[in-house]
Amino acid sequence: MKKIFAFFILVSAFQSNAQGIKGLFSKDPIINHENFDKQRVYWGYFLGFNSYDYKFDYKNMGTDILVDKTTGFNVGLVGDLRLQEYINLRFEPGLYYTQRNLNYPDLEKPVDRKREVGATYIHFPLLLKFSALRTGNVRPYLVGGLSTTLNLASNSKSLDDNAQQRFRVKQWTKNYEVGFGIDLYLEYFKFSPSIRGVFGMGNELIPDNDPNSPWTGNIKSMSTRAILINFTFH
């Protein structure tokens, strides 16, 4: 339902700007929002999708933990501060829903082979946006920076562990992010699709109480890897 909802919002937005979209790549386009990027501060919102994974480092060689990724949903706000003509500082707080399923092929019982790690993230990225020269109604850009993430679904305070089928992760994580996108200046608003990689820094795992646990005993560190696809409207 979340994906369908986001799809209909995007379709409605593009239908209302159909003529503007046709003119984006024409030979001599009408320039939309010519002075938009001269604003000191402006705001927006984004909708999008995500795919979260884990990167594992092991203490000893053995069978890898397999991660089944799912497609999650993103929604949030954008605040943009113009530092100079080609550089902006961006703050993009958002809510991210996702889930990862961990599979342990070597365990005998089916109930022990799979662990679901659901997450509801509040994501706080602070990014620098490096824009190219605008050509007509199109302007590509690169983006990168640091972020902090709060997992509202974290069970970090639980005393139960995988022996009770509960995989524990830390509540707060730190990341660095890099990506690229393109600003499209439509008739009524600026639309910016982008793709970004998120790379967790530090170990997010809370080990089981048993140091020889078959689920966490061989994990040296576990950190987030994610791909975010956002559609931003200003």
Give the helix/strand layout:
Elements lengths: L1 H14 L2 H6 L17 E18 L7 E4 L1 E14 L2 E5 L2 E10 L6 H4 E18 L6 E14 L20 E14 L4 E12 L17 E15 L1
Antiparallel strand pairs: 1-3, 1-10, 2-5, 3-4, 3-5, 4-6, 5-6, 6-7, 7-8, 8-9, 9-10
InterPro entries: Beta-barrel_OMP_2, OMP/PagP_B-barrel
Protein name: Outer membrane protein beta-barrel domain-containing protein
Keywords: Signal
Low-pLDDT residue intervals, each spanning 5 or more residues: 2-20
**Any idea what the radius of gyration is?**
21 Å
CATH secondary-structure class: Mainly Beta
Counted beta strands: 10
SSE order, one letter for each helix or strand = HHEEEEEHEEEEE
Structural class: mainly beta
In the CATH scheme, what's the topology name?
Porin
Query: Which of globular, elongated, flat, extended, rod-shaped describes the shape?
Result: elongated
* Mean of residue pLDDT values: 88
When the domains are counted, the total is 1
From the structure provided, what is the oligomeric state, counting identical versus distinct chains?
A: single chain
Percentage of β-strand residues: over 45%
Major sheet size, sense and barrel closure? 10 strands, antiparallel
Report how far apart the termini are.
Answer: 25 Å
Signal peptide: 1-18
Protein name: Outer membrane protein beta-barrel domain-containing protein
Keywords: Signal
InterPro entries: Beta-barrel_OMP_2, OMP/PagP_B-barrel
